[in-house]
Amino acid sequence: MLEVKDALKGIGLADKEMQVYSALLPLGSASIRILALRTGINRGSVHDALNSLEQKGLVSGERKGSRRHFSVRSPENIIDTLEAQKKKIERSEDMVRQALPALLSFYSKQGGRPSVEYFDSDEGIRKILEDVLITVDALPEKEYALYSSKSARSYLYKLYPDFTKEKIKRGINTKVIALGEGGDPANLKMAERKWLDSDAPAYILIYGPKVAMISAAEDDTPFGVLIKDDKIARTQRILFDNLWSRII
Question: Which residues form the Transcription regulator TrmB N-terminal domain (predicted)?
Answer without folding.
Answer: 8-70
